Amino acid sequence: MTGPLKPPATEPAELIWQDGVPESARFGDVYFNRNDGLSETRHVFIEPNNLSGRFAQLPSHGHFVIGETGFGSGLSFLTAWDEWQRQTSHQQNTVLHFISFERYPLTREELKLALARWPEVTPLSVQLISHYPPLMKGVHRLVFDGGRVRLTLFFGELRNGLDQLPFYADAWFLDGFDPQYNPEMWSDEVIQSVRAHSQPGTTFATFTAVGRIRRSLEAAGFETRKLTGFGRKREMLSGALANAPKATVPAPLSNDPVAIIGAGIAGTLLARNLAERGIPVLLIDKAANAGSAASGNLQGALYAKLGIEYNAQAELAATALSFSQRYYRPWQDDFWHPTGLLQLATTDKESDRQRKFCERNQYPENFLTPVSAAKASELAGIDIPVEGLWFPQSGWLEPAKACERLSQHPLITPLFGFEVAQIERVEGGWSLQGTQNTSHQVSRWIIACGHQTAEIAPVTGTLRLKPIRGQVTYLPESTVNPPATVICGSKYLNPVAHGQATTGATFDIRNDNPEVTVEGHQENMDELLRMLPNLPVSQAPSAQALKGRVAFRCTTHDYQPVAGELRTASGTKVEDAYLFTGLGSKGLVWGPLLAEYLGDLIAGQPPCLPNHLSRRVATLRLYPKPET
Predict the structure, then answer these.
(1) What would the pLDDT profile of 180-196 be if each residue is shown by its tens digit?
(2) Measured in whole angstroms, how far is the alpha carbon of residue 272 from the centre of its chain?
(3) Which of 66, 251, 365, 569 has the fewest CB atoms within 10 Å around its CB?
(4) Are 46 and 80 contacting, i.e. CB atoms less than 8 angstroms apart?
(5) How high is the pLDDT of residue 2?
(6) pLDDT (0 to 100) of residue 296
(7) Residue-level pLDDT at 543
(8) Is it true that the peptide bond before 8 is cis, omega within 30 degrees of 0?
(9) pTM score, two decimals?
(10) Residue 428 burial by CB count (10 A; 0-12/13-18/19+): exposed, middle or buried?
(11) Residue 159, exposed/middle/buried by CB under 10 A (0-12, 13-18, 19+)?
């Protein structure tokens, strides 16, 4: 595509390949040493930062943070991961956080070619290539090795990324192309930002020994020393930060379990996230099993409707969708079915919206692409009369089954059949008061029980949460020729599962009827046939004979999710208390990323959301603004 890029696309690297080694056409420098890039990485970054010894000495439940100023081919990340595996295989529940920035990322195919030179790290590079995110600007979190390695990738300008991500590094890889070719990456402002993300004892290493860089590092408070460089480079720099204020780091968790109230998709995703970090969880629900309320449907689409303008709302949705597609991959053909998803322009209004969307945005083709009616029909395997957007990595889930699977972990203790009526502060923690004069004392808790949150949260004032009724309709396989992909429009239609296809759901704002109604089925069927007028439906049961299910989604006043520390209306933090709610009909999309974010907060680790997106999901906005 010619002309300037439209958001959220990021400009990829321009490469020149010489004997299998990538060189930047833009900066005229190689990505790694032509003879032995792996040894170079160990010499320049691993050894001067003393990572072997520091990794080995990390205590149980500890974490280590490496910051890197240029991701490039990912070789430095893989080398650090390889060393992490060597030194911490005996340790329990330690986490390596690797936070890297890249203005001009390689494509997945280029990454594969570049890393093919290093068979020593092939088991790791295969995973990196498989999980490599679409080239969209912003923050991408990749999780490896059962959660023991977390890579946070920022695609965009280095200074913007350093401004947006809140973290403190234990070690820095000051990487990138030669300062004479890429001076912006080595500016005084960047060095000061590196300093702002460091604390006493934070080390750094870099391949360059340019006097200007050394003086800038020393002016920022780093003690520097020259070391012998690698290969033809005579010298390099390393050092550490001294005499700096200690960063405020949350106190480590005790061994007491964290209580999660609500075992729907939000609660079980968070429980699994914490358990995989080594944090025990008490999973509480008033029902007899996980996934019994709004998450109890047989099928659900992994779907986000992205806004025409690429703003913070669209960025959060796109980031969440991309993360969830990666997250569910281990459960493929269990409860996750990546069939792809079509978002159809079934009305004139939606057709106009999609036209404007495509004019103003540029998403990577492996994330979404516009398709004609003919192409949509080919993908779906049924006659599609209109154009639409194709999400090749999306699909559908079995939500109830997902909740069940996610809650099965040795560190997750279920407490089902217990309804929390009240939460009270007591000496040493919190008391969860049940409806049957029983209670449980815990040190930390998260409410993840949808619209019931407002009833039990120990704060005064109104929390702007509301339930919205949704009824789905089940179509027997014998009565409908189902699509091969998920189809979304005014309603959705999923492929067949367990002998039936699901369509719906209604959106009943002022209806609190928990029972399935004939009117709901009729609405679903009428809308389905308006969306797909050529859908072959034979011997369809009457609305009276159809079966389905009713659930109540929890939404906020602004239809954006909530995940974060609980605060009072005045903004005061409620210690050891969190909310995870308001996911609406997009819980399957929002859930994995926001569970990762909450897991970061609770574990005191670098968060996966930049500042402007964490503000978007903050709990304080649930309170009505005071009248002026």
Answers:
(1) 888 889 999 999 999 99
(2) 14
(3) 251
(4) yes
(5) 55
(6) 86
(7) 83
(8) yes
(9) 0.96
(10) exposed
(11) middle
Beta strands 258-261; 281-285: pairing state: parallel
Assigned token pair, 464:
């702007």
Tokens, residue 271: 């429980």
First-residue to last-residue Cα distance in the chain: 50
- Residue whose token pair is 């998920």: 486
Q: In the chain, where are the structural domains located? A: 15-241, 258-294+400-464+558-622, 341-392+466-556
Q: Mean pLDDT over all residues of the chain?
A: 94
627 pLDDT more than 80: no
The pLDDT tens digits for 287-307 are 999 998 888 889 999 999 999
Q: How far is CA 521 from the centre of its chain?
A: 35
Hey, which residues does 442 pair with through a beta bridge? Answer: 430
Question: Which phi and psi angles does 239 have, rounded to 5°?
Answer: 170, -165
pLDDT of 237 reads 97
Location of structure tokens 């217990």:
418
* 173 within 8 A of 205, measured Cβ to Cβ: yes
Matching fold, domains 15-241 and 258-294+400-464+558-622: no
What type of residue sits at position 14?
Answer: E
- CB contact at 8 A, 37 and 23: no
Please name which of 363, 409, 416, 422 lies closest in space to residue 389, comparing C-alpha atoms.
Answer: 363
What is the CB neighbour count within 10 angstroms for residue 270?
A: 30
Q: Which of 250, 99, 94, 179 is nearest to 610 (CA)?
A: 99
| Calpha distance 516→469 (Å, rounded) | 11
**If you classify domain 15-241 with CATH, what class do you get?**
alpha beta
Q: Confidence band (pLDDT; 50, 70, 90) for 395? A: very high
- pLDDT category of residue 35 using cuts at 50, 70 and 90: confident
* φ/ψ of residue 600, rounded to 5: -60, -45
- Report the SS3 class of residue 593: helix
Which tens digits make up the pLDDT trace of 246-257? 655 555 556 789
Domain 341-392+466-556 has CATH 3.30.9.10: yes
Residues with Cβ within 8 Å of 9's Cβ and at least 6 positions away in sequence, in order, are 135, 136, 137, 362, 363, 364
Phi, psi of 17, rounded to the nearest 5 degrees: -100, 125
Q: How is residue 208 written in tokens? A: 């360059």
Neighbours of 628 (CB within 10 A): 3
Q: For the CA atoms of the chain, what is the radius of gyration?
A: 26
Question: Which residue in the block uniquely carries the two structure tokens 């996980």?
Answer: 290
Of the CA atoms within 13 Å of residue 194, those in its CB half-sphere come to 35
Sequence-distant (≥ 6) Cβ neighbours of residue 449 within 8 angstroms: 261, 262, 264, 267, 285, 420, 456, 581
Write down the residue that tokens 């029909």 correspond to: 377
Q: State the CB neighbour count (10 A cutoff) for residue 249.
A: 10
| pLDDT value for 1 | 44
**Residue 243 CB coordination number (10 Å):** 7
d(CA 499, CA 59): 51
* Alpha carbons 199 and 64: distance in angstroms, whole number: 13
Q: Give the three-state DSSP class for 416.
A: strand
Q: Residue 351: beta bridge partners?
A: none
Burial annotation 106-120 (CB, 10 A radius, 16+ → b, else e): bbbebbbbbbebbee
Sheet holding 21-24, edge to edge: 15-18, 21-24, 29-30
Give the tokens for residue 234.
């005579």
Query: Which two tokens mark 190?
Result: 């960047």
Fold for domain 258-294+400-464+558-622?
FAD/NAD(P)-binding domain (3.50.50)
Cα–Cα distance for residue pair 29/74, rounded to 1 Å? 16
